[in-house]
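Homework-ish question, so no full write-ups if that breaks the rules, but can someone show me the predicted structure for this set?
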Amino acid sequence: MSNPLVISVDAMGGDNGPPVIVPGVVEAAAAGGFGDARFLLHGDAATIEAALARTAARRDRFEVRHTSLVVPSDAKPGHAMRRGKGTSMWNAIESVRGGEASAAVSAGNTGALMAISRLLLRMVGDLERPALVASWPTLSGVTTVLDVGANILCDADRLVEFAIMGAAFHRASHGVPRPTVGILNVGTEHEKGHDEVREADRILRERKFELDYHGFVEGDDIAKGTVDVVVTDGFTGNVALKTAEGLARFFRAELRRTLTGDVLAQAGALVASGALRKMSARLNPSAVNGSPFLGLTGVVVKSHGGADAQGIANAVRLAQTLASGGVVAEIATHLDGRGGSPGQADTERSVA
Amino acid sequence: MSNPLVISVDAMGGDNGPPVIVPGVVEAAAAGGFGDARFLLHGDAATIEAALARTAARRDRFEVRHTSLVVPSDAKPGHAMRRGKGTSMWNAIESVRGGEASAAVSAGNTGALMAISRLLLRMVGDLERPALVASWPTLSGVTTVLDVGANILCDADRLVEFAIMGAAFHRASHGVPRPTVGILNVGTEHEKGHDEVREADRILRERKFELDYHGFVEGDDIAKGTVDVVVTDGFTGNVALKTAEGLARFFRAELRRTLTGDVLAQAGALVASGALRKMSARLNPSAVNGSPFLGLTGVVVKSHGGADAQGIANAVRLAQTLASGGVVAEIATHLDGRGGSPGQADTERSVA
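A: Not a homework solution, just the prediction itself:
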């Protein structure tokens, strides 16, 4: 790549701030694979510099952009949009809008990040809100699930857009040329479900949009990895994701309880502990850090607020992959010329 | 109890038929707790008699009602309703309608069972379709989740009905006098979600209906056991349940893979195998067998098609509990006098 990528990072967002975010970015930078990518670090200069000094970073790849303002973790989206100017989150997105950076990463407040992203970057085509993506670990790899919370009400056109965006995302991030896509429903027959899924199913069966449309899938198909991309409305997707997260916690708690239950179990657990630890990391549907907001005119990746440096590095790598893979342009091309009615834009109602 | 309960059983439904269903019923009968409950066994007399002969059953508690007709496992609900007369499933429900039995149990085709139940037993009040209930294992016990697939479109009145029915069911089956109830949503604030959940939330905050209304809950609250009863529309509930079932299978597969991965893990697994086996049974949200159809004028309990004798016994015990606990009358009382608009009645669209 002739022009090195520039990634803009909100160094203040999330539970941990620069002491975790900066080493994470440095880790991603050291991993390479995107030429000599550069990084803009937005936030409190003194704290960021201190964190940088504790790493072995090649200093010329990092540029600190000072601001003392941050978006509070409990800020309402509307408030963040009206009052967020000059915060580290705002400035991180602003760098993308201005063309200085190719992608932004933040571990801050999801609702605020989405609101500011929509305001500064705007949506592709006639989309109303970005879709939130979950990368869900499965028996055979990772399934892309969207929307997991931004769009509570989705008509058929919205679901078709998710299919197109999800396929573009999956292609870019996993190198699958023609991802298989399914619509989440209560059964696999064409007549199952409500009007929105049946109409979206009809449209996707008729037009292919460079994706391999599989038809309806059911909840258990997510973990099975039946398709690469599972499309659903943000209400159902959010409930499914959180239900799975809850079950993963339940499973780990049961496993712990089981393996400390009696002497034999304790002994077994001790012997097998290395393998069990390795497994634990795969069990949570949120284990894969880095969730893009799809449908914006730029790349914005949300990291978990509580991500460790490794998680931040994953989110940064995802931002690099999406920016260098031209996902935004691809989504714009596919959505271009499609019909579609405006969706719901009431930020307060969504999970984000 | 002066009049012993009579439970009507479709002995032919499910994957296994009389060789598994009959021993299951006999096991429930032997467990007692409901006086000298009696059982009507509908289906092929020769096969049922042969299965009975292999048990130590007190023969006077079982009455065989012969029919050679069965509802095929792949029958469409509409077809089962029009052509199901005289089948073992139909006759099992008919015994409840006629007053001969207090409850019916079937492991047959869910859609057919619901269609025939609606036709013969009718709905309480202005309900359109029964709600399907899942009894979901949690860290602290069992959470009742409804609807998990019968009612795809649910307005606020429907959700309020689920709250009332779910609380009555949970009270009867778990002995909790005033169950806590939550509505499943994408966040816990009153303004989150779509109109239907927000309106149902408003109604339940104003009127208490002998339940302890907690407010909105999220997906991870199900496994956490935050409330006794989780209310949701049949689309979301079905996706959540199947997503969890898929994840539970994924866990078990990962655990197996982990514990056979290397010699140390294998040794650990061998030592801890007893404890791990015990745990496995708790991990599946469908582990608790017996799902009632709530809202009918009689008790109908659906068993998994693949249930073993122990599972059938659980379903039969649930039928006894609900019949002796007067759940139908309680639901009728609570729903009586409530407003409410007719819901969707298109059987083909639902999961069942």
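Now go work out the reasoning yourself. Hint: Chain A has two domains: 1-125+295-326+341-352, 131-287.
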